[in-house]
Design goal:
- The protein has 366 residues and is α/β, with parallel strands linked by helices.
- It has one domain: Glycoside hydrolase/deacetylase (TIM Barrel).
- 41% of the residues lie in helices and 13% in strands.
- Strands 3, 4, 5, 6, 7, 8, 9, 10, 11 and 12 form a ten-stranded mixed beta sheet that branches. A two-stranded antiparallel ribbon has the order 1-2.
- Strand 3, helix 3 and strand 4 form a beta-alpha-beta unit.
- The longest helix has 21 residues.
- The two termini are 24 Å apart.
- The N terminus is likely disordered.
Amino acid sequence: MKQRQSIYILMAAAAAIIVAGIIAYTAIVGTNQTINTQKAEDNEVTQESDDSQIDKDEVEVEYPFFITTMTHMEGNWDFTIDSEDRFLDQIDKLEFAMDIADEYDATLTIETEEPFARANAKWDYNFMAEIFERGHGVGSHCDRGGSGNGTYDELVEELKLIKSLVDDLVGEKNNLGCSGAGSSIDWAQALVEAGFKYVDGLVGFHMLAFPLSERPDGWDDLAIYNEFYHDNVPVEMEDRIHPLRLENTLDWDEDDTGIVVSSGQLGRLSFFSEGDRTECMESGCDLEADDVDKTVAQVIEAVELHDTSRIGKLTFYIPTSEMIEENEVVLRYFFSEMQKLEEAGMVEWASQVEVYEAFVDWEKAQ
């Protein structure tokens, strides 16, 4: 999203907008999807003939549904061997993906851990700033805390280190969020103390900090470490797609202060058709057109669940390992399908920080 309006004031009911968007999308792609319009018809709102006579207090304010990406420059990368070549190889992949995304007016978000951030400084090539200047999103990747070792103060200091490294590259005001930091420690408070405003990329590890009563059934610590550690959370799509603010990890009840939890994960794009992360991690799953088709279906499902009185959001994870020429056709297919959804009025591209800013605007309007 290059130019975003944070608030859309429309006079159609939420269901009517969703149905209209789906119909517009299917018309663009030339499919014969059958759309159930009964709910929209039952809830149709007729606009007053004279807009000037509408009581502003009765106007229904509806908020957009954003689509975003995550690309992580990982914490376990080693640039000490052939470091400059490895560093430049990552840059080539990012440039390749941004060039394609730009053609479809899409917005990527690149979030970096310590190794790539230090490599920017070491080789005097501030590519993170270049990403931002091109109109894409930047942020921190906080690949910390998952082991469950350490103290609260130690986690805060680690998060502060990552933030300072990325701040030096893109500026403090542009590095507002962290992806990760899931831990048995209260990461919500730790992130705020470290200077972050929002967190994205929530997975099973983040549930370790919550009491059992606030976790899904069967999600004890052992189950999370062995099975659910990288599952998307919150588990229910309807809960996952609406950002909220948490003061701490005692419960999932929305608070007035604290970190903005901006989840919305759908997972890794190349895993969608298989639907099994474990299998794909073990045997590998190629990025295919079927992954894109499954993505479209999931986006439509999420939009149908969107409470338009709140900000809505989804995130696709695209690692640099998939930003290669062999995937160009499928990447173009993905971005073109998302562009059709956007043209149909169903979604809007944004960076992670732009979603946060829209959420803050939404809070002020309440």
